[in-house]
Design goal:
paralog of FGE (formylglycine-generating enzyme); single chain; seven-stranded mixed β-sheet
Length: 291
Amino acid sequence: MLIAFKLKLLLACAAGFAGPLAVAPLVSEMSTRGAQGEPVIVEIAAGSFAYREAGDFTRAGQQAEAPLHRLQFTRPLHIMREQVSSAAYQLCVRDGECHALDRGVTIAPDRPAVQVSWHDAQAYASWLSRQTGHHYRLPSDAEWAFAAGSKFRDDGAPVEADDPSKRWISRYERESERDLSDTTAYPFGQFGLNERGVSDLAGNVWEWTSTCFVRSRVDEAGKAGRPTVNCGVRVAEGAHRAYVTDFIRDARAGGCAQGVPPANLGFRLVREERSWVASVSARWGKVWARS
């Protein structure tokens, strides 16, 4: 199955099914693939980091700053070095498991798949899992922030008791300062590697996460209460945190719940590593089946 997957990728690249920009050399594609045709995975060692919760928070009926916590990851995180490429996504389209990309998206092995919805990303993760035998999924917002390291933008902003609206104004001003008018889906590497070896984080491609949008009240100590969860809106991470309706493919045309809309919507996946116990059990299961 993995050999067939690799052959499909080579044929897709050789076909050049996207016009003049889809001319990345085949050798370049092979150098950015992992063993047996799977995407290159970066292992990020277990550790802790400061994380501000995603969502909308209020205190006494007024806007409040989102709670800031120190999160501990007790196991390594395995995440794709690059975003899912448009050529790799096209294989899922050819198999009838994913919706076709928009006509304006360049199909190439070194370009990200952009203008995809959260549901598109989910469909691709399921397809890739079946193709490779590994479990791939979207990262949570906290996992994405952990992988992003110094590229993660804390969206916390102080709230003035006499004029809470200044928080929203401040956020729009801060997000608008970044030039998001360039929507070109550049070749991988355009925005560089972070200190953890993950490529193109916080560039002009926002990445879907599995995290749902929440609204919650916080008490005087800053602790959030039981949230109201809306999974029809998901967190997308990039140059800033965005909240986007899950079926939207181009947030510039609408569907961005809060803040300045993302220039492009893409994604990268986390690969779940099987535990040592599960791996040993699977190996012994095969031995017992043969005996």
